[in-house]
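Think of the structure tokens as a kind of shorthand, similar to the way a musician reads notation: each symbol stands for something richer, in this case the local conformation of the backbone. In the example below we present two proteins back to back. Begin with the first one, reading the sequence and then the tokens, and try to describe in your own words what changes along the chain.
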Amino acid sequence: MPQEFKKYEDPKLDGRVRLLPSQYPAVRAMYKKLGSLRKVALEFGVTKNIILFVINPDYKELDRKRKIENKVWNRYYDRIEHRQAMRDFRAKKRELGHAIYKGRKNTNKHKLCVCCQTNLVE
């Protein structure tokens, strides 16, 4: 069943966004003034790559292609950390009112013992 992608109306609610599109001209102006990616990144509290992506959008596409070729997502996969991250993500989606993440009813309440038909989980 396909899921409907619901964009955030306000980019400030999106936890993935480090710089808002309204800040891009300020980043470019500061880079022309300072001439250093590191100084601009420290000023805005982001990484040098994010500043580089804003200044040179072509580099962002090249970096994305490189990551797909090298499959960098397989390098540091940790199941326990991923599980916790997904729980946090779903909780945030629930707070924002996404219907698909409302959660399921707890089905453990109705498990019965095969022998005596008593509740196993209360």
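Once you have a description of the first chain, move to the second and do the same.
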Amino acid sequence: MSRRRYTKEQIKEFQRLFDEKVKALKIELENAPVKDKLDLEICIHTYHYQRRLTWMLSSILQQKGNIPNIVINISHTDNDGTPTTEEVCNFFRKQGLNIKETLMTEKEVCNRAIARNKQMTETSSDFILFADSDMVYDTRFFENLHKQMKTNLKSETRVMGADRHSLNIEFCIKYFENDMTKYPCVVNDVANIAAKWPLKWIHGGGTAAGNFQLANVKAVTVLSKKKYTHRTHDFWRATGSDRLFRCRMGGRTAITTLPQYHLNHDRKGPELQR
């Protein structure tokens, strides 16, 4: 099937209409009353990352200050490791986290765009954050982000990205290969532990890659019809849907946050992950 081709004049008109929509939306968002506590849904897609996911959820559990009302939506398959993601979710619910699960089939799990479309359609939060399942957040990360969502980010309609502190790959692999901890568990003082590990680099904010994509849900509803992407053929790390989401939202912008640490890993295939 051939793609439909548009003339330059048609494309120019599409852009004009989109710009008008964005302008009106920004005015609406800027003038909207601000709640004392915003609702933030963190959407995590995971497969064979249960130990790193435990570290991530521990860091969310250990957040301090005036944080948003956080809902965590974890997409996964059944019986996907030891411990299973379901066991990790149940454990952290008992610790007090508000966790929802989006169950995927074996055929769907390689394509996180399917999960993100479901999560986006079903959310009722003010903001949504699409994140990888191997992140550890500074203890004041969400307090700082909450403050920004209520002030300088309240009328941002683009996809927002943030730098991540990506940790040394070999160090992380060796640590988790030799780790004898019984999971799931709460990893105490987890952000302080990650902060002391050797660093590979700090980057990613300008890209707004799929490991951190923050968006205003009202903006997604208006500009992208509350849909992450129309793309349904992502395959593991071949995630073209990340770029398409940014395009649907009119682009991307980098924001400044407190540190988020990436528990780096092998990239030879999903079955090798920890």
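Compare your description with these statements about the second chain. The longest helix spans residues 8-31.
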